[in-house]
Specification:
This protein has about 350 residues and is an alpha/beta fold. About 30% of the residues lie in helices and about 20% in strands. Helix 6 runs antiparallel to helix 9. The structure holds thiamine diphosphate, iron/sulfur cluster and magnesium ion. The site of iron/sulfur cluster has 12 residues, from loops.
């Protein structure tokens, strides 16, 4: 429990007795104003407010400015920088080895949609319990600003080079492949990203969040479609998002005609007040259709596009023991010579 010198106001603590300081990481080495720093701040706030024990979190990443950010939040959690684009396989191994941990993976648009697309697609089809965040600036920030595969057609580099290839929409792809909580946000949209991250922590399956996160050094100029200005002018939110955690007994009236309420695995409630009357975030086909329409109109649609709390996750499908595999004693994981001989006998 946090204490203060006599006479000073009590320190704010969360439901497990920790201060927000307990969720911070090292000092950032990214450029001042980089969108990735704002995302780290939102992760710190969401983990603090949800009362997640930092020691229960794994934060794998790939390579890139974005993939460096796990060093800047949750310093008491477990971190691993994988090879460029290969975070999904490392994360899969860690999750299967210890199902009691919460996994928050951080990647970049290059790390995911360019070199890492092969691993990404297989991660998305398993519904493994993971929060997968793409810090999306449309360029390879760390290697000085080349276009990535999420860069929009016609977008311009600082050097004047025009992108002549269509973008990969990682959200549409994740929905099609089987991820069960998919959304897009903007690092500059504090309120929306904060609620989305809290809901992501409550979800027990694959969460894929594409967060547009401007690179102030290489992709924040006129002609870029991932700049702060472009996002301010073109962001089109689908809903007003609010989140009521299971441990808070707040019950505010809402109108089911205008709001979709989704009960999460732990009993928390995600409330999506529709800004578009017809939108149904539990319908896969309409989610993909709406994303395609947004591309045609040149809007950057944000919000929770798809949520499904009914699908079994990968660990449930594998039917593994409740006890984390990493904590099983050797007598269980190495059954001994007689068992091996019996198996060999059966294979004859
Ligand atoms: C196998 C491999 N190929 C290429 C690189 C060089 N490289 C390092 S980071 C990077 C791109 C990072 O872009 P992104 O994931 O979008 O992250 P950002 O820096 O934009 O946040 C590349 C190509 C590498 N480190 N390893
Ligand atoms: S180069 Fe771009 S992505 Fe990298 S830290 Fe700087 S602003 Fe951020
Ligand atoms: Mg990038």
């Amino acid at each position: 429990m946090a204490t203060t010198p006599a006479g000073s106001p009590p320190l704010k603590i969360n439901r497990i007795g920790l201060q927000v300081l307990d969720y911070k990481g090292g000092k950032t080495t990214l450029c001042a104003g980089c969108g990735h720093n704002a995302i780290s701040e939102r992760i710190i706030d969401a983990m603090y407010e949800m009362g997640v024990k930092p020691e229960r979190v794994i934060k794998p990443s790939g390579i890139g400015c974005s993939s460096k950010t796990p060093a800047y939040f949750l310093s008491r959690s477990h971190s691993f920088n994988a090879v460029h684009g290969r975070m999904p396989s490392v994360a899969t191994g860690a999750i299967l080895a210890n199902r009691s941990l919460i996994t928050l993976g951080v990647s970049g648009d290059g790390d995911t949609a360019s070199i890492g697309i092969g691993q990404f697609v297989h991660l998305m089809r398993r519904n493994l319990p993971i929060i997968y965040i793409i810090e999306d600036n449309g360029v390879y920030g760390l290697t000085k600003g080349q276009f990535s595969a999420t860069a929009d057609l016609g977008s311009k580099l600082k050097t004047g080079v025009i992108n002549d290839l269509p973008p990969i929409d990682t959200c549409a792809m994740a929905i099609e492949l089987g991820a069960t909580f998919v959304g897009r946000s903007f690092s500059g949209d504090k309120k929306q990203l904060h609620s989305m991250l809290k809901a992501a922590i409550a979800h027990n399956g694959t969460v894929m969040l594409d967060v547009v996160s401007p690179c102030v050094t290489f992709n924040d100029h006129e002609g870029s479609t991932k700049s702060y200005k472009y996002m301010k002018d073109h962001e089109e939110p689908l809903q007003d998002i609010s989140f009521v955690p299971a441990f808070e007994e707040i019950d505010v009236d809402y109108d089911p005609g205008t709001t979709t309420e989704v009960t999460m695995h732990d009993g928390s409630r995600l409330r999506l007040r529709k800004l578009e009357e017809e939108y149904n975030p539990t319908h896969k086909v309409s989610a993909i259709k709406r994303l395609m329409e947004a591309h045609e109109k040149g809007e950057v649609l944000t919000g929770v596009f798809y949520v499904n709390t009914k699908a079994p996750n990968f660990i449930e499908m594998l039917n593994v023991t409740d006890q984390p595999l990493a904590t099983l004693p050797e007598s269980v994981v190495r059954p001994g010579r007689e068992v091996l001989e019996q198996v060999m006998e059966e294979l004859k």
